[in-house]
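Table S2 (text version). Query chain:
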Amino acid sequence: MPTHLAFTSSGSHRGVSPETVQVDGNLLKHLNMEKDCQGQRQYSTSKLLLAYTSVKELAAMGTEPNGKTLVIVNSLCPGLCSSELSRGFNAWYEVIFVWIVYAILARTAEEGGRVLVSGTVQGVEGQGNFWRNDKFNERYVL
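Corresponding structure-token output:
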């Protein structure tokens, strides 16, 4: 059985428009400019870059020319999980909003953890793929 390297990611990478990553000059320098930093867009772009630089490239490096997989590399999305990440939201309307979103959309941390475990135990069919809701979804394409 090959070694398995799994990256925790997000399905938000699918919402990145090509214009976001098509810049003149250095992409990372552009993304690090404070004036261009816009919360969710930055997060989604970082997940897309993870897909290309880590998952896609490492998956190719983990496969020998004869097709034998030495290292399975894939990306796992636990989905929105109820956690303490929102602890910085202190205004009453932020607290209510986060509570409603978590109540309606979020999984428990345990449920999210199960998705991570189930994706990590997949075989070579997971090479370079995106695991979400206990199944492989689309490959990363831009």
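Notes on Table S2: Helices lie at 18-21, 27-31, 39-61, 92-105, 109-120. DSSP finds five helices and four strands in the chain.
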